[in-house]
What we know:
Layout: E1 2-9, H1 13-24, E2 29-32, H2 41-44, E3 48-49, H3 59-83, E4 94-99, H4 101-117, H5 122-129, E5 131-135, H6 136-142, E6 152-158, E7 162-163, H7 166-179, E8 183-185, E9 190-196, E10 199-204, E11 208-216, H8 222-227, E12 236-245, E13 259-261, E14 267-269, H9 284-297, E15 306-316, E16 323-326, E17 333-337, H10 345-358
Parallel strand pairs: 1-2, 1-11, 2-8, 11-17
Antiparallel strand pairs: 3-7, 4-6, 5-6, 9-10, 10-11, 12-14, 12-15, 13-14, 16-17
Helix pairs in contact: 1-7, 1-10, 3-7
Amino acid sequence: MNTADILVIGGGVIGAAVAYGLTERGAQVTLLDQGGSAPNASRGNFGLVWVQGKGLGMPRYAQWTLEAAQTWPKFSADLLEETGIDVDYQQPGGFEVCLGEEEFSLRKAELEQLRQETANCVANSVGIDKCEMLNSRNMQELIPEMRLGDFVSGASFSTLDGHLNPLLLLSALTAAIKKSGTSYYPDQQVESISFRNDCFDVQTTTERFSAKKVVLACGLGIKTLASQIGLEIPIHPQRGQILVTERTLPLLAQPFVTLRQTVEGSFMIGASHEDVGLDCGTTLDEIRRLARHAVQVFPELSKLQMVRCWGALRILTPDSKPIYVESENCPGAFVVTSHSGITLAPLHASRISHWIAEGTTPEGFEQFHSRRFDA
C-alpha cells in the first residue's frame, strides 16, 4: 500500500499544475497518470493563453480567466527558475479574425453582451475594456509582415492574450513536481476508488494507494471515477484537428484563435470542433477546410508545405466552463476539470491547490459546481 496526504489522479497539465501547487504548500503528494503516447488534451492542444470572449453567460469565469492571464508572467518565470525550462510564454495580444461583415457584427455583439454582463465586476470590466474591434486596415498595421486576405473584415483584439508551447509547459510542471519529491507514477491506470474510515483507497491495474484526499483531474476518465465518490460530472469529448507547416522566418508575433506561429517558425493551424466520440484521428475533408480558412486569412500561407497533422480530444462540460467541486458524500474528494487547462494553469497551481489543501473555498465558486447542470 502506497500512502500520501493527497493523491492526484491525472498527469496532464491540469493534474500536474494542481500537484505542483500542493507540493509548494508542503503536502505529501502522489501523482498517478495512465501514461501512453496518445495525443490527449495536454499533448495535442493549440497552446493559447486566452482571455477575450471567455465567460459569456458566467461573469465569474470571465474574472477567473482574467486573473489567470495576469498571473502568467510570474508563473512562467517561476517555472523557468525552478526547472530551467522556458515554456515560450509570450503575451503580444491576440486576434479572433472575422471573415465577412456578418461575422464581424456577430463578434462585436458578443463582446458587447459580455461587457454588459460583467459591468458590475470592476476587475473583469478592466479586462473586457482591453478587447476592441479592429477593421482590416487597423489589423494590417499591427501585422505588417503578413498580408491579410480580401475576405478578412476585421477582428477582435485583446492585449491580454498570448501563447506558449504546451509540451514544454507539461515538461516543466512534471520536472518541478519530481524535483520537489512528489511520488510520480506515469503508468498507473486507476480502476476504482473506495472511501471508508475517512480515507480513500485507490486501486490501479497493478498497485494500491491510500490518501486522506484525492483529486480527479484525469480528463475523460473523471466521469466513471467520479460516480464512485458520489458525483455526477457531465463531460464529453470533442475532437480538434491541427495542422503544422514547415518552418519559416518569424512573421507573426500575435496568435489568432485559429492559427499562430511558434517560436521555432512553424505555423499551427486549427482547430476543428467535431463530435466523434473517442476518435482522435484526422480526416482529409477537415484538413482541407482548415487549410482553406488559413489561406483566406493569410494567402501567403499557401506557399508553405504542411509537415504533420493530428487530432486530439477536448474535455468539455455542457456549457464549456470549468467544474470545481468537492464530494458531499465523500469529503476530501475533489474534481478539477476545464477546457482551458493551459490558460488557467497558474490558478490551478495556486488558488485550487489552496482550496484542496486548506479547505477554503474561493469566493464565487458555487458557480463552478456541477449542480448547475441538474436542471
